[in-house]
Amino acid sequence: MYKLIIPLVALGLTACNSTSDTVNLAQCTNNNWADVGYETALSGKSVRFFNTYEEQCGEKLAVDAKSHYLDGFTSGIKEYCTYDNGYKLASKALPNKNTCPFELRTQFEKGYKMAALVLKEQKANLKKMQDQQEANKRYQPAK
Amino acid sequence: MFKINKNKVLLSSFFALICSSYVFASNTSEKLAFNIKVAKPTFVLPQFSGPYREREASIAPDEYESAEKLRALLENENQYEALKVLESFYDIELSPAMLTLKAQIYFSMQKYDKAEALYLKVLARKPQLVRVHRDLGQLYLLQEKPKKAQKHFSKALSLGSNEAIVHGQLAYLNLTLNSPFSAISEYQQAMALQPNEIQWQQGLFSALSQAKMYPTAHALLAEMLVKNPNEIDLWLNKAVLSLNQNNNKEALISLEMAILLGDKDDGNLKTAAQLHLQLQSYDRAFELISRHVEKNSLNTHTLNEYLTWLDQVEMWQEASDLLKEIEPKIKGLSAKEQSMLFVQTANINSKRRKFNIAEDYYKKALDSDPSNGDALLKYALFSSDKKAHIQAELLYIRAESIPEFEKQALLGKAQLYLNMQNHAGALVQLQKAYSRYPELAALSEQIKVIQNIIRLKNKNQA
């Protein structure tokens, strides 16, 4: 049954552009939802990733899974949404998925923008150098 | 009243003291205590009206659209729909401002547990949000968790809130949880911000009164009365203040003003009557008593008190009139209550020297309630005065078997024996009373005196 559902769900999620991840069904009955939430936050995924668990696990999901997941997510997101982490992501040219809560967003975005600026400058410098080299090649007098 | 051949002056004064204290305990030894009921300081809850009311946290730019939608819903008082919109988000996705709004909607829908959990969640994310501390304080106040409420109001103020309601409510909590002094300054702040708010004025007045700062309280009250001369509570407060300052006349004037304006509280009417009796304006006292008795379904305790007061000021005719007035209602009373009123009727008739009627009523009182200790003691004294010594003795013996009347019965019997020149019998009763009630320290002296008399008597006989 799951074989039929999973591709559909995955397709749906992809279409929504919220996330393209699927869940490990073994996790449905695990006891460490707080860890799952924490890791989800640290990986930059949206809190709504839990919807995927809800949809795919159905009744297998523990009653208190959501609250533990949200507790873990709340802790994780505080670690994720920092200036340094924003800087790190942008340095690696990774996208900003806008998962930070409003009150933590400012610092994270500041770091992200700073690194993006540096990256842009580096790219511009690189392009400048390449262009210079091209120009040098083009205007080299024929021997 | 007490006649003893030898050493009689000493014994008479002793018994006059003891017997008047105990035999007529309910009549004469009661200290007058005046009680006036005034309204207690209260608190008010604000109305929550929507996302764009003043607040310290701003919403996220990506929430503008939702906020517009929510505003429209809340303006149309569609809280359920607004809540549905907010519940479609995970809490972490909402800005603290939007989350606060969600909590406020829960609060106004009286879902207090959810509101509390959300407020705490907001504070975990942004602890400096003044408005959330204020709202949470009010939530706790409503849930009767005053200590928690106090903590959050204090926090709101320390974070810079300067709303009258926060000052006022903290003052109310300080007044109820701590000392009145800790409330005065907060009430003053609230009054400075909302000078016409009657609640803060009453609260400040209450705090000043409790702190015994009477002149300031009086000045405040005078100002309040100028603005609201028809406010019953203010006149009652003035009466309380005057009583605290032992100015009974001033208290009575204020109390009468409150009654004139329509105060119908039973306790206040009673206090007014009591004050009139004390200040010897008997006609007005009786008018108030009659009005109270007419108005109420018969409260025998109150009636008994009134009759006792009238007896004390020797208004026996009025007391008799009062009893006549309530006579048709007596049949509906319990046997015990009937017995109590029959004793009063007997007592009043005795004072009016209508001894036969008095005796009939004493008998009726004991028929209705044979264990009425007060009736037994009073009937015994009445019989003793009539020289019906045997009957008096029997009645004292019956009273002695009732624990709460034993002491009075022993002393009464001792007096009876002394009246009968039975010194040996009196000595036995006094020794019994002294051994059972060692607090009657003065008895030891009297016992010695009677022992001397007996010794002297025996010597003379020998």
Describe this structure in words.
The complex is a heterodimer of chains A (143) and B (462). Chain A is mainly α and 143 residues long. Chain A folds into 2 domains: 1-80, no CATH class; 81-143. Chain A contains 6 helices and no strands. In chain A, helix 2 (33-42) packs parallel to helix 4 (65-80) and helix 5 (83-91) runs parallel beside helix 6. Residues 1-20 of chain A have low confidence and may be disordered. In chain B, 72% of the residues lie in helices and 0% in strands. Chain B is built from 25 helices and no strands. Chain B has helices at 8-22, 25-28, 64-75, 79-87, 96-108, 112-125, 130-142, 146-158, 164-177, 180-193, 198-210, 214-227, 232-244, 248-260, 266-278, 282-295, 300-312, 316-330, 335-351, 355-368, 373-385, 389-400, 406-419, 423-436, 442-461. In chain B, helix 6 packs antiparallel against helix 7 (130-142), helix 13 packs antiparallel against helix 14 and helix 19 (335-351) packs parallel to helix 21 (373-385). The chains are: A mainly alpha (143), B mainly alpha (462). Chain A binds chain B through residues 47-48, 50, 70, 73-74, 77, 101-103, 105, and chain B through 59-60, 63, 90-93, 95-96, 125-126.
Q: Report strand % of chain A.
A: under 5%
Secondary-structure element order of chain A, as H and E? HHHHHH
Shape of chain A: elongated
Number of strands of chain A: 0
Instruction: Determine the N-to-C terminus distance of chain A.
Output: 73 Å
State the order of secondary-structure elements of chain B, H for helix, E for strand: HHHHHHHHHHHHHHHHHHHHHHHHH
Query: Poorly predicted ranges of chain A (pLDDT <50, ≥5 residues)?
Result: 1-20
The total strand number of chain B stands at 0
Structural class of the secondary structure composition of chain B?
mainly alpha
